[in-house]
Specification:
The protein has one domain (about 70-280). It has a two-stranded antiparallel ribbon. With about 280 residues, the chain is an all-alpha fold. The two termini are about 30 Å apart. About 80% of the residues lie in helices and about 0% in strands.
């Protein structure tokens, strides 16, 4: 067996080890969320499973955790990691609000935010502005621990192992597909709509995101742009834009991670990064 064949065989074993461990430990967390109660603690536990699986795989394979791409990396890549989700989420929801696919300024959310901020008499625009700032900064920072629990496993470990065997395109498709399927039990159980439609929209979105995140991960040789990206994506959709949206009969077809608008907009951006990756030889 040649050295190249030995390296390939070793990488395949490493990947299979990771996937087996990930399946087992994630099944426990999925059971807690689906079979018991979907509390934030159980969801946070699930989000830590990719990194736990990566660490256990490295231990079994006698490799050092310190060899993962922990370094802060390039400041520009980290800034892009944060602001690209701001761009596509704002664009998607701006289109939704301006076209009437969904309304802006949900009065129930504004009322809840007034109470949460202790500003019961404040005007709506002031409440929205303050809460957006707090969510974009404070809540974002608070979320980084669980976000890192995913990204160290996905972009810090899995993407690099896959790249030893596959092209950039295939690496994005495979890792994005795994990442999407990993979410499926939650979507199937709690999606509340047309399950096939939701899974399709979510999968397209995840793979498009993966292209951008993997580009910056490989370009900067750091997992931090992906952590920043994932955190901003979650905050701006789940904590800001969705709560502010007033639903209409067609809103669910377009909003959230399971509707059409986010996958469409982020896919257009992903095409740009796919071309950049090709030019850069990633």
């Amino acid at each position: 067996m040649t050295a190249a064949q030995t390296d390939k065989r070793s990488t395949i074993i490493t990947l299979l080890t990771f996937l087996v461990i990930l399946t087992i430990v994630s099944a426990v967390a999925h059971y807690a969320i689906i079979g018991l109660v979907p509390t934030s603690l159980y969801v946070g536990t699930l989000m830590m499973m990719p990194t736990l699986s990566a660490f256990l795989t490295l231990k079994i394979r006698s490799r050092k955790i310190s060899h993962l791409p922990w370094a802060w990396g390039d400041h520009g890549a980290n800034r892009a990691g944060y602001f690209i989700p701001v761009l596509y989420v704002s664009t998607a929801y701006g289109i939704i609000w301006m076209t009437g696919l969904g309304g802006f300024g949900n009065p129930e959310t504004v009322s809840e935010w007034r109470q949460a901020l202790g500003l019961p008499g404040a005007p709506a625009f002031a409440v929205i502005a303050l809460m957006v700032v707090l969510m974009a900064v404070v809540q974002f920072i608070k979320s980084l621990g669980t976000i890192a629990g995913e990204e160290i496993g996905w972009r810090g470990f899995l993407a690099w192992e896959l790249r030893k065997l596959f092209s950039f395109n295939a690496t994005c498709l495979i890792s994005g597909g795994i990442w999407a399927v990993w979410h499926y039990p939650i979507i199937i159980t709690y999606g509340g709509g047309n399950t096939l439609f939701q899974l399709l929209c979510f999968t397209v979105m995840i793979i498009a995101m993966t292209v951008i995140m993997t580009y910056y991960t490989f370009k900067s040789r750091s997992v931090w742009p992906a952590i920043m990206f994932h955190g901003a994506h979650n905050i701006y959709i789940q904590k800001i834009c969705m709560p502010l949206t007033v639903e209409s009969p067609t809103t669910t077809l377009w909003t959230d991670e399971y509707g059409l608008m986010i996958p469409i907009v982020v896919s257009l951006i992903a095409i740009i990064y796919w071309q950049r990756a090709r030019k850069a030889g990633l």
